[in-house]
Amino acid sequence: MAETNERKPVVIVDDVHIVYKVYASGKRAVGENSRNGLLKKKTQLREVHAVKGVSFTVYEGESVGLIGSNGSGKSSLMRAVSGLTPIDKGNIYASARPTLLGVGAALLPALSGEKNILLGGMAMGLDRKEAEQSVDAITEFAGLEQFIELPMRTYSSGMSARLRFAIAAHRDHDILIIDEALAVGDQAFRNRSEARMRQMKDSAGTVFLVSHSMKSILDTCTRVIWLEKGVLRMDGDPQTVVDAYNAANGSTTVD
Q1: pLDDT value at 2 more than 50
Q2: φ/ψ bin of 38: left (φ > 0), alpha (ψ from -120 to 50), beta (otherwise)
Q3: In this predicted model, what pLDDT tens digit does every residue of 183-211 receive, in sequence order?
Q4: How many CB atoms lie within 10 A of CB 87?
Q5: pTM here?
Q6: Which of 29, 61, 87, 148 is 20 to 30 Å apart from 138, CA to CA?
């Protein structure tokens, strides 16, 4: 049989729509003169079409950046890919269960950073001994050596986000989705994070990065998808897509 060099698809998003049903409540004036009229409360059920017919295929070893303005559907789409948000139309296929790392990922505030590392490691499939052996490396990666024995409730939001990333990035993932995690920490932490993403990509893992930092996107991604108001605007070479996005938004910077 002839040898083939075809790339292996790992995530297929096929005509995906996501619609949220939300209640919009407010008050309107009743009567001819609204200034003197009674205020009557009204509640309406509204539909928000967050993702509108998006399709793409991602291949093994790719590092894909997702960009777009706030409310463009990036996080909604990634939550759907990870299985956390139901879709209303279309299909999503994944060769392995995606791991979503977001800044809102839960850690237990009453427990120390060290205990959260142990629990997080075991939740990712490490046994107790492996989790214990990972504590020092994860602590150093997150830059929390002086704070790791303190309860998580004493951590700043940035410290917590760095620890979440360090826990998730300690092991390789077939498909890892990172939602804004690189926006926290100093430049040294961002450099470590970006280097770790490149390592995972090079080991044939597939990485999605949702970020407003065009520098992080350009430094780490081999491909960029631009969503705007739930619609896929562009998909391709990182520099080309970022340039188009900046031009549409009147920006010339990559920060």
Answers
A1: no
A2: beta
A3: 666 778 878 887 887 777 777 688 899 98
A4: 18
A5: 0.77
A6: 61
